[in-house]
Amino acid sequence: MVFLHLAKRNVLRKRERSMLTLVGMMLAVACFVTLLSLGEGINYRVRGEFQARRVSLYVLPAPLLGMTLGNISGGGNFTELMPYNLKNELISIPGVERVAGISRQQIRVKNYSLTLWGVDMDDFEQFLPDFKVGNGRLPVYRYEIMMGAGLAKKLGVSLGKSVTIGSEKFKLVGIGDAGGTFQDYSCFVPLSFMMEMQRTKKVQEFWLQTGNTIVAKEAEKNIMEKYPHLGVKTGNEYAQTANEVVFYAWLMQFCIALIGVLIALTATMNTMLISTYERMKEFGTLRAIGLSRAMIFLMIMTESLLLSLGGGILGIIMGIMGARLIDDAVCYLFQVAFPIARLTPDLMLNAVLLSVGVGFLGSVIPGLVVVRKNIIQSLRWD
User: Fold this and answer.
1) Helix ranges (DSSP H) in 199-344
2) Sign of the C-alpha dihedral, residues 36, 38, 39, 41?
3) CA-based angle 76:149:145, to the nearest 5?
């Protein structure tokens, strides 16, 4: 383990330079963890949202087909609505077994902007079976409301208490657990009462259930032929549209984080090159007393890995704190109740692998510079 001892000694020889390299690596990994935790959180909630639904077809106004993600986590869109009595016509389409009207509205509760869902409560458990009402019951009367467990905890409210929305007071009759999806931070009222509050007999979406995917495609075709002004998407198509939006958001965050990683890689390689040129005679002496080229290369690589891994571990710790900070900042600035950032074991593992990769790549060129020189050239190096 001579190479390990020498690598450790060389890291400590130029403490200031090694410290700057370590700090650069730490900041790069912290940026990587912090930014990608936002993408992880959004992806987790969107994926969980669709897994929690049992919807074969989505029917909505055609202009809103490309606004899937906004319709999931936001308050929907009121520029295009559909008459609620269309439900009776949709249920008559061959293959359609169940239809539910859906409306959403942005509301303010305390300091948070939330989504209030208007749902046909007769169909709630069929379309949202994973939303388990552990305490209380579904709201069925006017001014009754149900909310997700995450939101109830955030607001510090309990069953039977009053919740003020605008100038109106609602009675909390149910608290449900939706497994961390957007629904966990939303409120629900009967659709009839939602339409009463909105002073309209129209809804934003219809959710349809059919027997299987083949029946769903046939029903989709029939609906589009009968109602050309409407848009129809299968559950998979609807989810795919949202996943594409999430992917590009994640890709943008990854590219920003990658800039920091490339800077750290450049700093590590620069440090190792300077250190290599300063110690060229030392390498020549080691070669002269019998140390092989492979051992010299391994020593340089170990030195680089010590710096990158040390900075990576510190960067992960800093990234965890940064993710919590940026999560609080986003929630405060946009006044949303649900947390966005999410730290996962895979993200931590990728951060460690990133540190190892930077350390390895940062040692390749300096290592090749040394091993390609013969002993005489190294000993005469000035």
Assistant:
1) 213-226, 235-278, 280-288, 293-334
2) positive
3) 60
